[in-house]
Amino acid sequence: MQHHRAGAAPVDLTGGIRVHLKYHQWLAICLCEQAHSALTAPAVRFALSGRPAMAGNIFINYRREESGHVAGRLHESLAPKFGRKKLFMDVDNIPVGKDFENYLKSQVAACDAMLAIIGPNWLTAKDETGQRRLDNPEDFVVIEIAAALARDIPVVPLLVDGARMPKASELPDSLKPLARRQAIEVRHTNFNSDADTLIKRLREVLGPESRWRGRATKAVAAMAVLFLVTWGGYRFVHPMRIYLEESFRAVQQLVEEAKAERERQARVEEKRKADEAEQQRLSALKAEQAAEEKRKADEAEQQRLTALNEQERQARVSEANRIAEAEQQRIEGEAAGRAGDYDKALASFNEAIRLNHNDAVAYFDRGQTYSFKGDSPQAIADYTEAIRLDPKYADAFFKRARDYFEKGDYDRAITDSTEAIRLNPKYAAAFNNRGFFYMKKGDYHRALADYAEALRLDPSDALALCNRGVAKLKINDSSGNADIAKARELKSAACQ
Predict the structure, then answer these.
(1) pTM of the model
(2) 442 in the Ramachandran plot: left (φ > 0), alpha (ψ -120 to 50) or beta?
(3) Can you list the domains of the chain with their CATH numbers?
(4) What is the C-alpha separation between 329 and 315, in angstroms, rounded?
(5) Where are the alpha helices (H) located in 339-479, listed in sequence order?
(6) pLDDT for 15-64, tens place per residue?
């Protein structure tokens, strides 16, 4: 059967049947034959669109000054697998006069996956004003990644040149979800194998759509057959019956596979949510345990401090009681000394010193008691300890000087008197004693000077008047008799 009509083309169908079809009938047959042949799904799609088809668009996000070399190598590795027209990586491609932010967002919206190349300085890179570039909302990298994350487009962080995955706390709010994306490391020394891993991962991301398109080709072919039957009539049914059955089986398989894929993705999502919920539960449990441990530690520390404070309080109370008891013993010793009971006084002072061995006054009082008993060496020892505890104890120097004098050590007696005067320049008795010590050494002029100062400080000091009178007579100054007479007027027992 041959028909020659304008616009018709001869076609050899399965089984050797040759018919003349109009162009649209011929196109349908081509679709059927290509879908039924061993050609790949992209080849069939080429018959429909006139251009090769890719599994999906890929957006490469990077900073040119830091990772441009890596981006270029990746582009060359991905192009043979996915097609150059499916890769977008340079802002130089932005048309003149276009709003670059809107254009970038539109390009990102059209992509099926994004590769975010992260170099060592990706987190800290700064612009000409010194501001961190990630904190600038108009930065190309920020705009592109934020747009992909907002549209839930798969974003794969690529760690290059030893870079680490950034933490959420280090990223601006719009990029924080990036920290939860699984990263791939691309090393210079293992670039080819790392690139193959990346391609495999990308195919996993883009795979379901590619498989769907392959199966959908047969569905389109089936529709073409129905169209052909409508135009060509019964004579085309028998040659195409086998292919038609296969096409419908392909459609049925496509539906089943799509359903299975949806169920698989639902299970994956359900597992992801369950894992996320479990992770949140574990994190909450860990935080609760940490909080409980901190509470217990704080409580234990508070109890320790409370116990320590109580111990310190009790120690202070005990110390205060001990010191008070020591002071009471010292006062009782002074009373016994005034009554002339030196042994009882010594016993009280000994107990006071046992209770408070840092009490300079107790040592001073016991030293005086030893002096009253004529034990100058022991008295000097106690005065010395009192001075060690209180180096400004003028009375201790004054008393020790008298005991040194009793031992015949006039020079030490004079030295201690001088120190007592230095500590208390108005100490009239110390001037009188030092004058007496000078007089015993025969230094009458120094003695007279000290007596004069003692009388200046205390004109009614009968002992100083008597001693000055004696010193004057030693140098044949008869005015000494007047001093002695006046001293007796002030105190009848003076100069006896």
Answers:
(1) 0.43
(2) left
(3) 58-205 (3.40.50.10140), 368-490 (1.25.40.10)
(4) 21
(5) 342-355, 360-372, 376-389, 394-406, 410-423, 428-440, 444-457, 462-474
(6) 443 444 444 443 444 444 444 444 343 333 333 333 333 457 998 999 98
